[in-house]
Design a protein that fits this description.
By secondary structure, the protein is of the alpha/beta class. The protein has 7 helices and 26 strands. The strands form 5 sheets. It has an 8-stranded mixed β-sheet with strand order 10-11-14-17-20-23-24-25. It has a 7-stranded mixed β-sheet with strand order 3-2-1-4-7-6-8, with helices on both faces. A 5-stranded mixed β-sheet has the order 12-15-18-21-26, with no helix packed on it.
Length: about 375
């Protein structure tokens, strides 16, 4: 059976309960532990054998719509006012190319759907359109029979709000995250790093619970305490501490002596020296504290600023990475040492970290954005880091 996928990425404000303040991009295009929710969704579709995928976005951050990416995916950037019309046209194109069934996803959030079970449910129900549900809430995931173009057109013209005919509900029992605000973005990073999702952090697991992507710079004296993630070309300066489910995304920087606890540092963001950042999401010039439920713009670039990278520099980095990949893999195959068996992440999490020392007795859950409330008149001083 020819099954194809249509993935919609829409940054319209009405789709978000509390728009993420750090970027004009929709949450589906913000990297979490090394990959965007869009990339993770495409990987999952391919895992279930759905190779022909069309991605339609109203953002200009997708690859150019040049007919494909070489992996079976094609991308279309559309003006916002024409987004739903472009989605309907893309559905019709998939049908004309031979699709018998189309899986339609709108990436307002991230869900790990068992597409094999959902397709089988759709066929067993002899449905025109079926929809995924989780905890009595509708997910923006549909199966549409290709022969039912009118049903597909009605669904897309209503912006996925209603079905033209009876729509049976497939009960999704796996992971889902609405990605409706900064708290959800942070929770997705926590869930990925603590292996509560089927998807995994990008990069190599250099030791249990610590993932580092290629070209990351971790200076002598910097400390990574599991679970933690450091993205490609990120820089962790000396005496900085990255701990408790913190995720430092690609090209981000954490300066000397700064402790980053249970926080996400978004791409191209620089966190200044000697700071203590906890339970937050940090973008260029902006910080959202999840315990206080407040977002603050930081005007002093010495505290939080942006890392500027010219397009030519990014192209050079990509070219160097490609040129060195094959020789590096050959060298590892010929002379690489056998990998030492490491304890699993659950064991590592239960062990007291020598980095934290006495601070390891901190009672609040290590990876919980909703950990114990702190009174507004109480100042906390940590017993680790550069003080």
């Amino acid at each position: 059976m020819d099954i194809r996928a249509l993935v919609l990425v829409n940054k319209s404000a009405e789709l978000l309960a509390d728009p993420i303040p750090f970027s004009s991009l929709p949450p589906a295009l913000l990297e979490v532990a090394g990959k965007t929710p869009l990339e993770r969704t495409l990987e999952r579709l391919r895992y279930f054998g759905i190779q022909a995928i069309t991605v339609v976005s109203d953002s200009d951050s997708l690859p150019p719509a040049s007919g494909g990416s070489g992996d079976g995916s094609s991308y279309l950037n559309s003006a916002r006012e024409r987004f739903w019309r472009a989605a309907e046209s893309s559905f019709n194109d998939l049908v004309q190319e031979g699709a018998e069934l189309v899986v339609l996803l709108s990436l307002g959030g991230y869900a790990e759907i068992d597409f094999e079970k959902m397709v089988q449910f759709h066929l067993d129900q002899n449905a025109r359109v079926s929809q995924a549900w989780k905890d009595e809430k509708a997910l923006q995931v549909f199966c549409i029979s290709a022969s039912r173009r009118n049903d597909a057109a009605s669904l897309l013209r209503s912006q996925l709000a209603r079905c033209r005919s009876e729509c049976p509900f497939f009960v999704h029992e796996g992971y889902s995250n609405s990605l409706s605000d900064a708290r959800d973005l942070r929770q997705l990073a926590i869930d990925i790093l603590t292996l509560k999702t089927e998807t995994r952090p990008s990069g190599a697991e250099v030791r249990p619970g610590v993932w580092v992507e290629s070209r990351a710079l971790i200076e002598k004296g910097a400390r990574l305490v599991a679970p933690a993630f450091v993205g490609a070309f990120a820089k962790i300066r000396t005496h900085a501490v990255i701990t408790r489910c913190s995720s430092v995304e690609h090209h981000a920087q954490v300066d000397c002596g700064t402790v980053t606890e249970n926080s996400t540092v978004l791409p191209y963001c620089r966190v200044g020296a000697g700071l203590d950042v906890a339970h937050s999401v940090i973008g260029a010039g902006t910080i959202a504290n999840l315990r206080r439920d407040v977002t603050v713009e930081i005007l002093d670039p010495k505290l939080i600023g942006a890392v500027l990278a010219a397009p030519g520099q990014r192209l050079l980095h990509a070219a160097l990475e490609l040129a060195s990949y094959i020789p590096r893999q050959m060298w590892r195959g010929l002379f690489g040492k056998p990998q030492v068996q490491q304890p699993d992440l659950k064991t590592a999490l239960k062990q007291t970290s020598p980095t934290l020392g006495g601070a390891a007795g901190y009672e609040a859950p290590a990876c919980d954005s909703d950990a114990a409330d702190i009174p507004s008149n109480l100042a906390a001083v940590r017993r680790y880091g550069h003080q």
